[in-house]
Design brief:
The chain has 276 residues and is an all-alpha fold. Helices cover 75% and strands 0% of the residues. The chain is built from 10 helices and no strands. The chain has helices at residues 13-41, 51-76, 89-111, 120-135, 138-168, 172-185, 190-210, 214-234, 239-243, 247-268. α1 (13-41) runs antiparallel to α2, α3 runs antiparallel to α7 (190-210) and α5 (138-168) packs antiparallel against α6.
Length: 276
Amino acid sequence: MEKSIYPKFTFTWLGGFILLSGFVVGSMAIAIINVISMYFFQQNLQYKDWYLMVSNAIVFLTSIAFFDFFVVRPSTHKKLNFNFSPTNFYTYLLIFPMMLGMMFIGEFVTSQIPTTGPFFGEYYDFFTQLMGQLTNNPVVMIITAVIMAPIFEEIIFRGIIQKGLVNKGVKSWKAILFAAIIFGLVHGNPWQFVGAVLLGCVLGLVYEKSKSLLLPMLLHGFNNLCSSILIFYTKNESFSEAIKVSEWIILAIGIVLFSLFYYLFVKKYKVHYSEI
């Protein structure tokens, strides 16, 4: 049997704690840098357009580095490494429509969550203000949402959590679902939670079948690019509003797209690769 060039690490509660520790340390580093900037230069970096982009990069990189140095290297004697190989063109023709279908389904489900009322109203206003910081500068938004987020988030949620659980012996569907739920929770709001869980399941399925992180990264970037474009045109990430059709039609199209291409990807052509 050919020896794998990729470390066969596992993901446990300790690994989760170490990831969280990296997040905390990265966040503290950002806060310290900002305090120094305010004290010596009288500038609050939080008001800079690029602050969210840079702070996210620091937090993600610190979390990944912690997991690499405190979990992967001590247990496998290899550095954290992933398969980023491209696949055949036909696979891309199956996974992108499947992803788009789930995006439509996710939009419909999300549209059923209230945005008004004593709790949801105030929370939704806070959420939209927070997102507004990201959308003030289109260039920063594209770099953060379409490039950086797919790379860092797929490494953590599919590459570390999902793969680590599978390596531990957890059934693939359970690992995919667990990683997707955690992926949804870290978004920190109910409107993105639903979509993130649904899309996370598709990303996890594609990673499980292809064994390449490149594919879920591309799909993740595709989703975020569509969301960014919709925000600029509709202000609320709505396909329904953008093309002037009912959310029920969006749901119907989503179910057809997802069901058809899921069947082609998983059942009929049984796309599956091995990781060496």
